[in-house]
């Protein structure tokens, strides 16, 4: 059966394998294959693969002696991994339990299986989970050389946004001052700090801030990160005119915080503005909101219009990289 694989030249095989392994993307149930001058590395989540890699379907050999969930079930279940936690999204609880049992019976490095039990809700952006196997909802996730510990039931975190986060981090230079207005457990500010930036991360969720501080220590960047619990609008007096780079990853309501972002921005700043809009005009509403908020104070240059992913039928999660010049 064909499975998704990253295809790279043979000379890039080991470096690519190591990079994919760092992000827990390698499909352990299939063998890495060689076809002519290319290496094909089987993966578990094509949407999380860095954009520079080509993903193709390939009949990779099943690893001998490995039992996979599909071997137990007779069909291929849909799931994603966050460290040693497997996440499924099933409305039928009996089917969910069947899949969880198969995952635990398979030869996967898994300790816990959880099923999404609600949508993300509330000011603290958390959801409910059914723990179907194992104990608890805490996980350790590795992404582009960083390690994040988090509790899925207490904080918001999406492993599917790893590629987008890396796209932003690659723009960061040493000595920058970066401000994440809705920082969560630190998936933006921690890799930014590892690039040499001085960072501030704010979140209303006290659990997220505690995990952010712990993750800063784990990644040896605690000296370059200030973590603040509270409403970002209350942090302006201490950080007015401070930031060279601002992350606004609150796509349903980022426009409500544009005035605050402009107060935080320095003489020149790049804003990464995330939005969810209809596919007919995914970037227009955000750009108009930014230009209206900037008024005569800043010149606004849209440097990138990028679709992050499909969010719902006819709706897209998008980002605008906008340069503000006072």
TrEMBL record:
GO terms for cellular component: cytoplasm. One of its GO terms (biological process) is tRNA N1-guanine methylation. GO terms for molecular function: tRNA methyltransferase activity. Residues 79-326 form the SAM-dependent methyltransferase TRM5/TYW2-type domain. It holds the Pfam family TRM5-TYW2_MTfase. Keywords: Cytoplasm, Methyltransferase, S-adenosyl-L-methionine, Transferase, tRNA processing. This is Methyltransferase. It comes from Halorhabdus utahensis (strain DSM 12940 / JCM 11049 / AX-2).
């Amino acid at each position: 059966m064909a499975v998704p694989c990253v295809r790279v030249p043979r000379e890039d095989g080991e470096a690519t394998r190591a990079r994919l392994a760092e992000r827990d993307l390698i499909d352990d149930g299939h063998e890495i294959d060689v076809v002519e001058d290319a290496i094909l590395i089987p993966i578990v989540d094509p949407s999380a693969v860095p954009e520079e890699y080509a993903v193709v379907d390939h009949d990779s050999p099943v690893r001998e002696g490995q039992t996979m969930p599909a071997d137990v079930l007779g069909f291929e279940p849909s799931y994603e991994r966050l460290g040693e936690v497997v996440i499924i999204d099933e409305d039928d609880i009996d089917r969910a339990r069947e899949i969880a049992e198969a995952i635990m019976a398979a030869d996967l490095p898994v300790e816990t299986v959880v099923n999404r039990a609600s949508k993300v809700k509330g000011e603290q952006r958390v959801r409910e989970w059914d723990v179907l196997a194992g104990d608890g909802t805490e996980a350790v996730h590795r992404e582009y050389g960083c390690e994040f510990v988090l509790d899925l039931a207490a904080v918001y975190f999406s492993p599917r946004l790893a590629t987008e986060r890396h796209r932003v981090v690659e723009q960061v230079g040493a000595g920058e001052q970066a401000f994440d207005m809705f920082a969560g457990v630190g998936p933006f500010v921690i890799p930014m700090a590892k690039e040499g930036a001085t960072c501030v991360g704010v979140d209303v969720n006290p659990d997220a801030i505690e995990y952010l501080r712990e993750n800063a220590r784990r990644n040896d960047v605690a000296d370059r990160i200030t973590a603040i619990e509270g409403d970002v609008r209350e942090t302006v007096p201490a950080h007015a005119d401070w930031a060279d780079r601002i992350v606004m990853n609150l796509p349903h309501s980022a426009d409500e915080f544009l005035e605050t972002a402009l107060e935080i921005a320095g003489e020149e700043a790049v804003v990464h503005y995330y939005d969810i809009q209809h596919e007919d005009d995914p970037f227009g509403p955000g750009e108009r909101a930014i230009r209206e908020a900037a008024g005569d104070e800043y010149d606004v240059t849209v440097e990138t219009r990028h679709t992050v992913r499909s969010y719902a039928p006819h709706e897209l999660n998008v980002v605008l990289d906008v340069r503000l010049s006072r």
